[in-house]
Design goal:
Helices cover 32% and strands 23% of the residues. With 195 residues, the protein is α/β, with parallel strands linked by helices. The strands form two sheets. Strands 5-4-1-6-8-7-9 form a seven-stranded mixed sheet, sandwiched between helices. The chain has a two-stranded antiparallel ribbon with strand order 2-3. The mean pLDDT is 89.
Length: 195
Amino acid sequence: MSCPDNLLTVVILAGGRGSRLGDQDKGLLEWQGKRFIEHILNNVKQVTNNIVINANRNVETYQEYGHPVISDDIEDYAGPLAGMLSALRSVKTPYIITLPCDAPLTTVALIEQFCDTHEKEQQKLYVASTDDGLQPVYAMIHTLLADNLAQYLADGHRKTQSWFKENDALSIHFDQQVTSFLNINTEAEYQSFAD
């Protein structure tokens, strides 16, 4: 099935510091003549026009792509959960699907598998997993969980996997779209990928 626009907003998480990559903004790294964010947007647009970018710097650059850009409500780069919370508080759809900005090979099939699973299961929280374990920045989250997440962060917690486990997230195992989970964290990984 396709993902109905009234169900979800795709949130691209580009709010990180990129500390392991020399503080570079990973969403703006280039590959095959396009920025990572452009590769991701081109794929997501095949599924939905509801797209939000979460960014804490280079906001004007991200705004050039024509989608709403939101920043974390929590300062000092509090991690992906902070971006998720800002998105949950700002979207008009009941669900968000989150994707990292440093995974330019993210596929349409990955997003559609979230939608297919939700149609059958009707849960409030889903998280991707592979043979390597949970992939917690790839998630489908109901906006009703915003207050729960806000409290978790207010209590000083930042661990993404822990929040999903505490809230009994339904794990969706992906074995077909594994390239979607290839993300770039270091200069060496970027050079290897770009080559």
